[in-house]
Model the fold of this input.
Amino acid sequence: MSDLHIRPAALEDTDQILRFIRDLAIYEKAEHEVLATPEHIQRTLFCPEPKVHGLMCLAGDRPVGFAVYFFNYSTWQGRHGLYLEDLYVAPEQRGAGAGKALLRHLARIALDNDCGRFEWSVLDWNAPSIAFYESLGAEAQSEWVRYRLTGDALRRLAAPAQ
Done:
């Protein structure tokens, strides 16, 4: 697809970003977990000093995908890394190069920022994405188990010790 263009997400992309987030959550069978509102997106992606960044992928002038990423840090490398939080390409555009174009763009951002690594997570049942990522040379990091605190568990841990 020769008319693909990737640009930084802009404030006017807020509604489209939320549509892509919901579409991704539906694909991942987790639509009920989407809590983001336009205000959340605007306050985090489009604030004066954002800690998270977005990219829009367009075919001509039509949005076909997006990516959200942030920089983390590796103490072992003594360098930042780029973490891809979300990558989504509309189903009718899959296989046309949008996903690879977004990943390539992110890899350039990582190198331009002297990142030692570029990482992301994928659901273990998402065989098409796993095959795609491995075709690019990405390697699963199966020795690490990811943990998450949310909701009441997060509040309990954050509460002052009694």
